[in-house]
Amino acid sequence: MRPGSIINHCRVLVCLGFVALVPGAAWAATEMAGDGQSQAIRLPERLDLNGMSQGRATTLDEDYAATQQEYKLSSPNKLNIKLDDVLAEHPEQILMPTGVEHGLTIADVRARALRNNLSLKVVQFDPQIAQSVLGAERAKFDNIIYASLRRTRENRPLTSGDIVQLKAEDTSLDGQLVKLNKAEQQIDYLDGEAGIAIPLRTGGTVRVSTPFERKLTEGALGTDEYRRATRFSISQPLLRNAGSKVNEASIRIADLDRRAVDASTRLQSIRVIALIDKAYWDLYAAWAELEVRQQQYELAARNLEMVRRKVQEGLVASIEASRAEIGVSDRIEALIMAKTRLQLSQRQLQFLLNDPQYTFEGHALIRPQSEPILVHYEFDRDRLVDSAMKGRLELLELELKLAADLNKIEYLQNQTLPLFTLDYSYGALSAGANSLSQAYNSPFDNRFNDWSVGLRFELPMTNEARRNQLQQAVQQRMQRLATKELQVLTVKREIHDGVDRAEQHWQRMIAARQQVMLAGVNYDGELKQFNEGLRNMTEVLEMLSRLGESQIKEIRALVDYQVALIDVAYNTGTLLGYGQIEFGS
To answer: Distance between CA atoms of 225 and 207, rounded to whole angstroms?
Structure first.
């Protein structure tokens, strides 16, 4: 059934059915608990309209039948007009849009939008960027392999040295004063080191390395010496930057930020789908309104032909022909405006789709094929609010940011402590002459070794910089908590407003349907009385206008009800389910 079928003033589209919901894939985030462990947050995948309804779901026909029985309304005869036959007789078809019509269901439109929508293409990079940031933070504990090699040559001149007093077992040397001059010599140094540095999650660093050195002295007393060592060292902060909780804080913050970005991206997807749905139903209404205006024009044109015949036959005054011509002119204007509205609605949907098949310059016309599912729901507001508290992605995003703020505060609290570090180093030494291999013959004989242990302390005089950073993080968290309270209140208001609007539009549909039926009966009666000479053409055209406006009210109420259901679903963080949309985890 095409949307144009609802223009008959005695009929309203009634589609019995159950509003199924999108089988969204399981999507979860984690919230950091106070003990540092993650707890899964499960999001609802669908909005169960039947479950949210307090009473039995009532179709439009059932509700209207009860109203008709209550007010003792009779069922008038229907007007049967073959519009295609009328169109074939008039050249004014140029007022209708031209192009190749493409029938699309709402599922087709959603799928094309998810593939091509530019807003979604932009935000799809955000999760990848956030994942890269998280990967960079996790990589800060990677082991580091390092090596160095350096050669130095010194050509030393003869230099005067210090005067020293000898102390020796030889009595002839003991107590003698001598002057140690540095002889002219040439020395080549070759030194290097290879090792691995292991960052610890506790904040320290462990190094294992093997430095070596060659010293070649040329001259009368020249030497060729090789020295090497196997060295182990560790440096561990005891206050500031100490502990895995502090050093892993940046990883947890990056992970929470990534989850917040995922929620934001999914929210943008839902927002785009909601916009697509509304644009689809707006186009549906534009097509239906255009056909109503077309019907109005053709009924007025038919009346004009009838009046002209009566004028020629002398049955009515010639003024009636002028009145009929004015009626046709008025409806041509309305038809032109309806055509423009259709073009604007087409362009809005094309903009959201961004599909090469449906460009602004092309001649393709999108014709909605999905019919609205009209079922009356009496929503359980408390359950809707509870579902929104669990499913609204804005609230989840705020929760994730609050958890990130808490980790940041704990990290900055640690940064206000003094820097107090324990350093320890141990090395096994050996040496050899003329060959480096001799220095490595017995690397662990422990004949020669050195070790050191030390403490380092550092504290700014006022520490104001770190204290203010901590205060800034605390105030930011307090601001976000206030924002969360405001968001919760906003969500509750949106739920109640959405339910009230849905009920309003349902009642509008019932009232509009009654108006269409009564206006059709009155128009039929006015036309018969005109043929009997009891009414003039102005009165007939006035009733025809009321019939058209009643039909358009019905169309708008029908579309507004669909939009209200979309808003109710969006306000709970979900989608209506007949669009076949599935979000990955």
So the answer is: 26
